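Q: My labmate handed me this sequence with no annotations at all. I'd like to see what the chain might look like in three dimensions before we decide whether it's worth expressing. Could you predict it?
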Amino acid sequence: MEIKVKGIASYPKVMKSQDFKGDGNFKYSIDVLILKTDPQCADITNKIQEVIKNSFPNGAPKGFKTCLKDMAVEYPEKPAFKDYMVLKASTNADVNKPFVVDANKEQILDPTMDSQIFGQIVWMVGNLATYNAQSSGVKIYLNGVLATGVDGDIPLEEMSSKPSVSQMFAGIEETTPTPSFG
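A: Here is what I predict for the chain of 182 residues:
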């Protein structure tokens, strides 16, 4: 089932695949953040339930995983995420490289684009399907990303996995003069 979603790009790996588990299985991927109040969330949830029902008529197996997650649960230490859901999409690099286009639907070839679209509003297109191999769940097989060039509402510092400067240096009170390096 095809799915199209508009949201904020988080941790995009759409230009250069990555071996996330260190097992030689390279993937292209993107996380798309969507406000919980956005009607897309209800639509995505309904589509996920439909795919589950079609694949598992007796109900999802124990330990079933899903591609839509509550950011307040996933990252409780990040208050900026509390009002968002995250939709995770990926595809194996040896099967399919996703199309990456700009707002004019022109293909982007710049290999640094992953870092450029981080935090921007994007459209993500993929196919929602279940899997049942070593584990079972529902995922989105990533087909393409349209980068709008518009920044999302979450400050990049809040989206980063590293602590902010004020968090890193909390409790340090420097009273000596700062040396000049110029």
